[in-house]
Amino acid sequence: MKASVRIQRGVESLFGTRDENIRLLEAGLTVHTQLVDNNLEIEGEAVNVARAENILEDYNTLVREGHTFNNGDLNSYLRVVTLDPEVSLRALVRSRSGKQRNFGKKMLAPKSVNQRRYLEAIERNDMVFGVGPAGTGKTYLAVAMAVSALINKQVSRIILTRPAVEAGERLGFLPGTLQEKVDPYLRPLYDALYDMLESERVEKLLERNVIEVAETAGAQRHRSGAHRLHARPHAQRQLHHSR
User: Fold this and answer.
1) Are the C-beta atoms of residues 82 and 50 closer than 8 Å to each other?
2) Does the structure show a pLDDT above 60 at 192?
3) Could you tell me which residues come within 8 angstroms of residue 224 by beta carbon, excluding any fewer than 6 positions away?
4) Cβ distance 138 to 146 under 8 Å?
5) Which of 48, 88, 113, 129 is in the most buried spot, having the most CB atoms within 10 Å?
6) How many angstroms separate the CA atoms of 6 and 51, rounded?
7) Which residues, 6+ apart, have CB-to-CB distance to 45 below 8 Å?
8) Residue 59's closest CA among 85, 92, 30?
9) Is the pTM of this model over 0.90?
10) Chain-wide mean pLDDT for the chain?
């Protein structure tokens, strides 16, 4: 099946750097596209062509309404809508625009369907378990949501913890002082904090104990959860050791 959608404005933004956005659309929906006189011609299976048409029409509508896609935003949105047929580009962009999260120095958009579901689950629920391979954003996004809650005064403190051992290891067998043993395991939490907030602000919040970064076992003792948000990446390791 073939179809054609006229792109009146924002052709450069639609295609992206080195055509990365249009290539993502093609790969995600298994279609072929060609731009002819501002008309984007689409060819492929009927259902995929129809989805591509809907995405492009949503893009046209958003551009006409004055929406500007910052660098990388559209690519992130396209990753979501090409993987999840129940999500439209227009609804996704409007939901993000109408409820932007304040991550300090960062404005983040989910880069996959699972990241979007993860963020929405954290917003809706008091306790969320995120399971997945390394490098998928579990720790970083958890810290981002904690920082957002603190900045927006939804909580008065945040506690960020990670277990100070890998599965099957014991802390006592590692070289160095206790602090030197623990620091490498907590470093990803500090890195995320400094990525989202100015370094001076992080230091002040840590000094005032508004933000606490701790090893999991130590952070569990004698704590109540009132007005606090507790982000605890790699909790499954703690469950493993407690069995």
Assistant:
1) no
2) yes
3) none
4) no
5) 48
6) 15
7) 1, 30, 31
8) 92
9) no
10) 79
